[in-house]
Amino acid sequence: MAISKSLVLWKPVCFLLFSISTYHSSAQYAVEPVTIQVDLSNEVGELLPIWSWWGYDEPNYTYMKDGQKLLSEIAKLSKVPVYVRAHSLLVTGEGTYGLKWGSTNAYTEDKKGRPIYDWTIVDRIFDTYIERGMKPFAQIGFMPQALSSKPEPYRHYWKPGAEYNDIYTGWAYPPKDYKKWAELVYQWVTHSVDRYGKEEVESWYWELWNEPNIGYWQGTTEEYIKLYDYSADAVKRALPTAKVGGPETTGPDWDKAEEFLRTFLDHVVSGKNYVTGKTGSPLDFISFHAKGSPKVVDGMVQMNIGTQLRDIDKGFEVVASYPTLKHLPILIGESDPEGCAACSEADYPHNAYRNGTMYAAYTAAAFARKYDLAKHHGVNLLGAITWGFEFEEQPWFAGFRDMATNGVDKPVLNTFRMFGMMEDQRVEVSQDNLSYDYVKVRDESVRGPAPDVNALASKSQKAATVMIWNYHDTNDLAVEDSPVKINIGGFPTDGRILLTHYRIDQEHSNSYTVWKEMGSPQNPTSEQMATLEEAGQLKLYGSPEWMDVKNKKLTISMKLPRQGISLLKLEW
């Protein structure tokens, strides 16, 4: 998980370095009505659940109280198995945890240098997933201390506000013995098959390392490629039908990430394999990251959704340029509004967006454009991992990038609940006077007077769902609500339908608002805790109602607040 490109700038002592923005509050402009057309008869492809993937730095949080609670909620919101990716699954330590740190002690050595394998903590992590119907996106990393070519110092004790480079200690270095490393990987996969069964492990994804083009890998590009060859060979020896991939670079539009990604893919296609001596390497999926870049402008958080989409666009472009690889599944291993999940609002003020509805609306708008970009490039997007889980023993609503705080769900998790309710077949959505399509959002972000008010729609044989969002890069909640008219056509027949309307805004599905109204307690009473837990769930916007479809058409009108999201579920 890379730090944001501008993260080092965003500390309170650096505010005077910000340039004066020419942005003016959108409250100065009249709010224009928006009319959205949904054509249920025009199918445009399967609405794959690319959102049903999560990840986080701290693996030991998995089986802690709030970690288990959140995993249960994430598992329940999806009708398909959710995949989970965690760092540090091979890091040395007795289950110790901290911000951006975790350990399993999977590998140590005796005094004679002979391997000792202990899967107790790794099993506890994976058991927690499997028990909930989830699946590991098994990250092979990081380097055990006994194998590290620079074992000291090994553990870091990073905290928000500290220098980010301080985290790159002994776990980030290449192995001193690649064959011992390969045997570790082989033993891990073999153990997993013995414990969970061949069929189960065949459904997992095994990927090597994290962001090897920056500090997470303290070796060269060629040393990473060598490590990949040894790792992929070990995985396939243990289970020939296992799925293995990489290279999990930072966003391909950032620095030299594209060069690293292309060098890796060139090797996979035509390089000499370090283990077999043959041409090429096994590759079952391709992974890279994509991040936005928020900042504070005139006292308000200003997002940059375009930066994240340009990362994705460049990654898709790179993959599409390899004819023999273009068909492979793409997994955006971390896909987020910015880089550092463990960086709180206290030290990085631009992270204030994470507690409220801005994160929720950004997520809806961004995922919709991921579908569009994949279709544009003709690539196979399988998943986009949200790198945000929960942080144990931290203050309430501290501005970490997480789905819940102290066991209470934040508004963003309700966006995923909406995604989980959507039907499987995507249908056409259009506007007569469209302000933002995926190209404009990619190239310009959402910075003009008008917000991005748009929709994603899908259907099944007897139901349809329409998700509508009102997003802007600047979190100006003082603007008027946007009048929205949704014209839905292409129903199979006339007659009565049941409309159920869900909403995320300042008054609905929003534990943060309720917490602030309580006086922002850091030690809520049991009664307050129950109220907050209830407020964190997805809420109805009024009661379900029956409506009449005439001439196979229906019109629904509403007012949608800035950074608000509605989900319309229609059943017939």
Description:
By secondary structure, this protein is an alpha/beta fold. It has a domain at 48-68 and 80-352 and 363-392: TIM Barrel, CATH 3.20.20. The protein is 27% helix and 24% strand. The protein contains 12 helices and 25 strands. The chain has helices at residues 65-77, 120-131, 178-196, 198-202, 221-238, 257-270, 305-320, 357-377, 411-421, 438-444, 511-517, 526-535; strands at residues 34-46, 53-56, 83-86, 107-109, 115-117, 135-140, 205-208, 243-249, 285-291, 295-297, 300-302, 329-336, 380-384, 386-387, 404-405, 408-409, 425-430, 452-459, 463-471, 482-489, 495-504, 539-540, 545-549, 553-560, 564-571. The strands form 5 sheets. Strands 1, 17, 18, 19, 20, 21, 22, 23, 24 and 25 form a 10-stranded mixed sheet that branches. Strands 13-12-9-8-7-6-3-2-14 form a 9-stranded parallel sheet. Helix 1 (65-77) links the parallel strand 2 (53-56) and strand 3 (83-86). Helix 3 (178-196) packs parallel to helix 5 (221-238) and helix 8 (357-377) crosses helix 9 (411-421). The longest helix is centred in the middle third of the chain and has 21 residues, at 357-377.
